[in-house]
Amino acid sequence: RLLVCRPEKNIICFPSQIGCSMGCTFCHAKSFIRNLTADEMGDAIWRVQSHINNAKPVLYSCMGEGEPSINGSAIHELFEKLFWKYYWSDQSQLIYTLEGALGAFS
Predict the structure, then answer these.
(1) How far apart are CA 95 and CA 59, in angstroms?
(2) Residues with Cβ within 8 Å of residue 43, at least 6 apart in sequence
(3) DSSP letters for 31-100
(4) Looking at the DSSP assignment, which residues form a beta bridge with residue 13?
């Protein structure tokens, strides 16, 4: 599910990988297939973004399938290409979670 509509905001959840190698017990993503590119993540966001009410704030959540920090370079590219240039507004929020790979940024 990529879109969560709430009265006060829309939430766009997008994946960073197909599958995941972390093996977190709470997650249904199992065997890792590959990282998504910035363009693939951006396409998923664009498909949802084009159908929502832009009058409400939008929270972009990289909490779909996969561990975002493992695909950090593509996510950084996504932020630079898409968010800062096209999607970001004064009402936008970005959520980026780290579940199991905290050392990825050290």
Answers:
(1) 7
(2) none
(3) S--EEPPHHHHHHHHHHHHTTS-TTS-EEEEE-SSS-GGGGHHHHHHHIIIIIIIII--TT-EEEE--SS
(4) 61
Q: Could you read off the pLDDT of 40-62 as tens digits, one per residue?
A: 998 888 888 888 877 788 888 88
Distance of CA 1 to the CA centre of its chain: 12
Q: Residue with structure tokens 């879109």?
A: 3
Q: What is the sign of the dihedral through the CA atoms of 45, 49, 51 and 56? A: positive
- Quick one: which H or E segment has residue 76? helix 72-78
For residue 5, the one-letter residue type is C
**Calpha distance 1→63 (Å, rounded):** 11
pLDDT digits (tens, 9 = 90+) for 15-37: 889 988 887 777 777 788 999 99
The secondary structure of residue 96, as a DSSP letter, is: E
What's the pLDDT band for 99 if we cut at 50, 70, 90? Answer: low
